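User: quick one - fold this with glutathione bound?
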Amino acid sequence: MIKLCGFALSNYYNKVKFVLLEHGIAFEEVLVPPSQDEAVLAHSPLGKVPYLQTEEGDLCESQCIVEYLAARFPVRRFSPPTRGKQPRSAR
Ligand SMILES: N[C@@H](CCC(=O)N[C@@H](CS)C(=O)NCC(=O)O)C(=O)O
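Assistant: Sure. Structure tokens for the protein plus glutathione:
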């Protein structure tokens, strides 16, 4: 399962978490503070969070992570469902 590593006070972390939740992607949260320890540098070369652990390898940089998720998982619409008529932009 995908592991999202970082801490909840980070806006970068929450940006990735939002996408995971919004797209219904199963993931686990792992509390990791930014650090220059080898254990963190092994996953994130600059020691920054968030980083993502996947079966395909590790990913860091929140925008890269979001783009990876968008490419790997089917994209759902962000707009709420409409009753009856489709909005003009959806035709
Ligand atoms: N460009 C990075 C920024 C991530 C970032 O700066 N995270 C902070 C925590 S909110 C961090 O790890 N800081 C530690 C450091 O700069 O060494 C991203 O979008 O993921």
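One thing worth noting: The chain is about 30% helix and 20% strand.
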